[in-house]
Amino acid sequence: MAAEGAEGAEPGTVRPGGRTARVRAAVLRAAGDTLAERGFAHLDLADIARRAEVGKTTVYRRWGTVTGLVADLLTDMAEQSLPRTETGSLLGDLRANARLVQRTLADPRQGALFKAVIAAATCETKTAEALRHFYDVRVEEWAPCVQQAVDRGEVPGGTDTHEVVRAVSAPLYYRLLTSGEHPDEAAADRAAEAAAAAARAGAYLRNEGRV
């Protein structure tokens, strides 16, 4: 993460404070609202500045491009995401993760925002990189829950902890993107149960852990 004032920092990546933090929050909120309401194609820096009640020059100078703004929005979302829940069992932890993802995707604003960003990532390299970073941060946050399950003997040693976490959210995103339906809590629980069962059966062993 770039420090404030670092030379050569990408637009929108310098960590703000004080008034700069308030400006950043207002602009990112306006960008998120526009993405949720109208999609990536209608994201315009001048319009974002107007909605955020911030000078257009400030927005152009700080973020430079729409993709730079979206990258910063995803960085902020990753930083603001709730920390992992530890229940003492693999299924309990994965269910907590799945329900968190489900609530996010079922939220009218957040669900629409993620759909817009995912769509943009298919053709915008910087947006794709920012989206990968967002999910890398979230998977890294929850992976220790799977490692704790390995340590407790719930799942085999050599289990790929990151793949287990990805397996939890994958069906929820698939449902949202292919059907347009917001996943419900029952779908979240099924995703967690399937991932936990597969992990216990050794489906996510790294190659070196397979016999």
Describe the structure.
This protein has nine helices and no strands. By secondary structure, the chain is mainly alpha-helical. The chain has two domains: 19-72, Arc Repressor Mutant, subunit A (Orthogonal Bundle), CATH 1.10.10.60; 81-209, Tetracycline Repressor, domain 2 (Orthogonal Bundle). Helix 5 runs antiparallel to helix 7 (125-152). The longest helix has 28 residues, at 125-152. It is elongated. The N and C termini lie far apart (40 Å).
**Largest β-sheet summary:** none
Using only CA atoms, what is the Rg? 19 Å
User: Which CATH architecture of the largest domain?
Assistant: Orthogonal Bundle
**How many domains make up the coordinates?**
2
- Low-confidence segments, given as residue ranges, are 1-16
- How many helices does DSSP assign? 9
Question: What is the CATH superfamily of the largest domain?
Answer: Tetracycline Repressor, domain 2
SSE pattern, N- to C-terminal: HHHHHHHHH
- Secondary structure tally: strands: 0
Q: How would you sum up the global shape?
A: elongated
CATH first level of the largest domain: which class?
A: Mainly Alpha
Distance between the termini: 40 Å
Domain HTH tetR-type: 21-81
Organism: Wenjunlia vitaminophila (Streptomyces vitaminophilus)
Keywords: DNA-binding, Transcription, Transcription regulation
Protein name: TetR family transcriptional regulator
